[in-house]
TrEMBL record:
<dbReference type="Pfam" id="PF05035">
    <property type="entry name" value="DGOK"/>
</dbReference>
<dbReference type="InterPro" id="IPR042258">
    <property type="entry name" value="DGOK_N"/>
</dbReference>
<protein>
    <submittedName>
        <fullName>2-dehydro-3-deoxygalactonokinase</fullName>
    </submittedName>
</protein>
<dbReference type="InterPro" id="IPR042257">
    <property type="entry name" value="DGOK_C"/>
</dbReference>
<dbReference type="InterPro" id="IPR007729">
    <property type="entry name" value="DGOK"/>
</dbReference>
Length: 314
């Protein structure tokens, strides 16, 4: 049996992490690399050197003809600032605006532009860089042209798709606010050394707390009151409760504006840890969802864009 031949490298490069996937011509992942060298953690102007450091051996002998990058690498913090495509937009419109980067590598390097959506007034209300690739991949994997996508993370994105077109983007600062509460707020001492473990029961209690009361500003302080005056929970339980409050609040706010008669699926794309937490929270809110692993969606989206990119002169 012939060994699969490398065809392209897909790079998901955000503010805090770098992930690269070596794929063959059918989109199968042959190898992958990951580091904490997000664009906000490296020296300005060093993106090409960091890319070479992480995947230089993949590029030896002209094995790869194309490197496709997405995420904050296409912002003013990264390789270069690539103009955002305005919604509504379909895959072909994004592929048409792939930006060819200046570099010293043999392979062609292109950066996905990202997407911006506007209010009725014409002012930009939502942006995303990198998540649009996962949304396109999710549509392709599910063969779904009408859906609401939730992409949890530091800045969770909720993306509406109608007839295959990205129409609107909403951003919830769920992950960043949760990290600030756990690390820098008055609640930090209550959750110190909790780690990444989640206690299911207290997570659900947090989701239910905001589902019934709807008060994001009041609910998290309950762990402080318990810690000071009636300590009976562990740091893991307190952290799980606050996580439930944050994720529950996001889902309550986002789904409140979804049309009751919306067509298509509610699709969540992310890491296994986040998918598990969001699936539990969505269930408590009475919503059924389809879950897709983030890496799978990213690779599928990159392959779609690569296939629809305008041909460049050789």
């Amino acid at each position: 049996m012939n060994k699969p031949t490398a065809n392209a490298v897909y790079v998901d490069w955000g503010t805090s992490s770098f992930r690269a996937y070596l794929v063959d011509e059918t989109g199968n992942c042959l190898d992958q690399r990951a580091s904490v060298q997000g664009v906000k953690k490296i020296d300005p102007g060093s993106c090409e050197a960091v890319l070479q450091e992480n995947i230089g051996d993949w590029l030896e002998g002209d094995r790869v003809a194309k490197i496709l990058m997405a995420g904050m690498v296409g912002s003013d913090l990264g390789w270069c600032a690539v103009p955002l495509v305005r919604a509504p937009c379909v895959a072909a419109m994004i592929a048409e605006k792939l930006f060819t980067a200046q570099h010293s590598q043999c392979a062609e390097i292109q950066i996905v532009p990202g997407v911006a959506s506007c209010e009725d007034t014409g002012h930009v209300s939502g942006i995303m860089r990198g998540e649009e690739v996962q949304v396109l991949g999710g549509m392709a994997l599910q063969n779904e042209k009408n859906a609401v996508f939730c992409l949890p993370g530091s800045h969770s994105k909720w993306v509406n798709v109608s007839e295959g077109s990205i129409t609107s983007i909403r951003t919830f600062m769920t992950g960043e606010l949760f990290d600030l509460m756990c690390g820098q707020s008055v609640l930090a001492d209550c959750m110190r050394h909790a780690g990444a473990e989640m206690d299911r029961n207290t997570f659900v209690a947090g989701v239910e707390c905001v589902r019934s009361d709807g008060n994001l500003l009041e609910a998290p302080f309950r762990v402080r009151a318990e810690f000071v005056a009636d300590p009976h929970r562990s740091p893991v339980e307190r952290k799980s409760f606050v996580s439930g409050v944050m994720i529950g609040s996001e889902i309550a706010a986002a789904t409140a504006e979804m049309k009751a008669d919306r067509s298509g699926e509610l699709i969540v794309i992310g890491s296994q840890q986040l998918l598990s937490a969001y699936h539990l929270a969505f269930t408590r809110h009475g919503h059924s969802i389809t879950c897709i692993q983030g890496e799978e969606a990213f690779i599928a989206g990159c392959r779609l864009l690569q296939g629809r990119a305008p041909k460049t002169a050789s």
